[in-house]
Design goal:
single chain; 479 residues; SH3 type barrels; eight-stranded antiparallel sheet; 46% helix; rod-shaped; disordered N terminus
Length: 479
């Protein structure tokens, strides 16, 4: 879980940034930083820090991200204590070590070690004796190239990390450990650093530009190239997508999303990403996510429903119709196992077909809704209303009249049943006068069949009353 947290934090905190220029093109440091040692690597990398240690084999510099980094001396081109000098260091590296002093003087020889705030060198003219030079007197220095038998070949690395302080370090990002990245380098072993330390990631072979796909491509290549991380990619990729979206980097999110297709991503994750793309107003990407979700859940009616409504919501009515027509072709038990009913599906199809002006198809589904005995009364009424509108659109006058007649008959039937139920209730409560009023209303409405049934119930109730018992007052208002 911490691995996922690291990636989410990284995606949220790091914005795509143009690669830094070489250190000599950067603004000059302040006076407080002027004596900071900057170790220049022959590959073009550099690391800086306030403290420096030099031995015959190592150059150690205290960095703000990985603490004391011990660098193989053979990989170091030189060390600068003032601003700039990178070009001079790389361009003047010879066989001997050379100190360039702030006075403009030079001392050639062999640098043996540092001793606190001084550096010791066996100058070529000293006869093997060491000379101590205060570090504050040195502007920059170069280290002699090692002989062929002792040389350290620096091969191109796949990744260059640019840190928040401007340092550049190349290597292979192998994995995450706790809240830190682990980067293997050829000249300083394995470095560990946190997400807060990073400014951007670069392809070493294209050091003056980011990956064509931006930071997203850099992440993807690192993830896919690292065995430990690759196994977790189906967890990492969705978080990266949401992280890029949260930063407004839609292109980065889309790049990662497209790479997800090769992994076995959970279908519910695709549903979450679809919602995220919807929120980011990226309908095409949202539909792609819904389609991926559907591909993994084709036997589930809920997947059909989600994709249908996604298409309909974005005006893809023909695609929506295809999805629900496909659902109707599924085995009966598929729908039976869900809360979605066949009338629900046919009503939805009728609506999209009316939007497509394919009224005959809409009419066909509506007729089946009305013929289905399981259709709820409210849905049946809604179907008749849509059916009437379809008949109007198509000019089918006879069918229109028949539909209107059926609708009115349905209303009359329901009204008659309601009044008949009232008569039964009044009789049960021995309110015969009230019951008689409902009978009269049925007669007034012309619902003769129901009026006759109500009258028969009333007569039967009167027949059971004793002759000496008066009928309740007709003006009794008790309900």
């Amino acid at each position: 879980m911490r691995l996922i947290t690291v990636l989410l934090t990284l995606a949220a905190l790091i914005a795509v940034a143009a690669p830094l220029r070489a250190a000599e093109e950067a603004p000059a440091p302040s006076n407080a930083e002027a004596r900071e040692a900057r170790v220049i690597i022959r590959s073009g990398d550099f690391l800086r820090g306030p403290t420096l240690e030099v031995t015959s084999k190592l150059v150690s510099v205290e960095t703000p991200y990985s603490g004391a980094v011990k660098i193989d001396r053979r990989a170091v081109a030189g060390i600068a204590f003032g601003p700039g000098h990178d070009t001079e260091i790389v361009g003047t590296q010879g066989e001997a070590d050379v100190l360039f002093l702030t006075t403009g003087d030079k001392i050639s020889g062999t640098i043996t070690r540092t001793d606190g705030d001084t550096l010791r060198i066996e100058a070529v003219y000293s006869g093997g004796k060491e000379t101590s030079i205060a570090l504050e007197q040195i502007d920059y220095l170069t280290l002699g190239k090692p002989g062929a038998e002792n040389a350290l070949e620096l091969k191109p690395e796949p990744l260059r990390v640019i840190f928040a302080n401007g340092d550049m370090v190349s290597g292979t990002l192998v994995s995450f450990k706790s809240d830190a990245f682990r980067l293997d380098t050829q000249y300083a072993g394995r470095l560990e650093f946190t997400t807060d330390d990073i400014q951007s990631l670069h392809n070493v072979e294209k050091s003056q530009q980011l990956f064509p796909g931006g930071l997203a491509e850099a992440f993807v290549r690192v993830i896919e190239g690292s065995g430990e991380i690759r196994r977790r990619s189906r967890d990492i990729f969705p978080i990266l997508v949401q992280g890029f979206l949260s930063q407004g980097d839609v292109e980065g999110a889309l790049y990662v999303f497209r790479r997800m297709g090769r992994y076995n991503i959970d279908p519910y994750t695709y549903s979450e990403l679809a919602n995220a793309f919807e929120a980011a107003k990226q309908p095409d990407a949202a539909l792609l996510a819904y389609e991926q979700m559907f591909r993994h859940r084709r036997r589930q009616p809920e997947a059909f429903r989600m994709l249908f409504h996604a298409y309909a919501r974005h005006g893809r009515y023909a695609k929506a119709a295809e999805i629900y027509e496909d659902l109707l072709k599924q085995p009966t038990e598929v729908l039976a196992s869900s809360s979605i009913t066949e009338p629900d599906v046919r009503m939805a199809l009728a609506e999209v077909y009316t939007k497509l002006e394919e009224y005959e198809r809409a009419i066909g589904h509506l007729r089946k809704v009305l013929d289905d005995p399981q259709t709820e009364p409210s849905k049946r009424q809604e179907a008749r209303t849509i059916l009437v509108n379809c008949f109007k659109k198509t000019g089918q006058l006879d069918e229109l009249v028949a539909a209107y007649t059926a609708e009115m008959e349905t209303l009359d039937e329901q009204l008659g049943k309601d009044y008949l139920a009232l008569v039964e209730q009044y009789i049960a409560r021995d309110r015969l006068a009230k019951a008689r009023m409902q009978v009269e209303r049925l007669q007034h409405l012309g619902l003769d069949e129901y009026a006759a049934q109500a009258q028969a119930l009333l007569d039967a109730a009167r027949g059971t009353r004793p002759e000496d018992e008066p009928e309740p007052d007709e003006n009794d208002n008790e309900e």
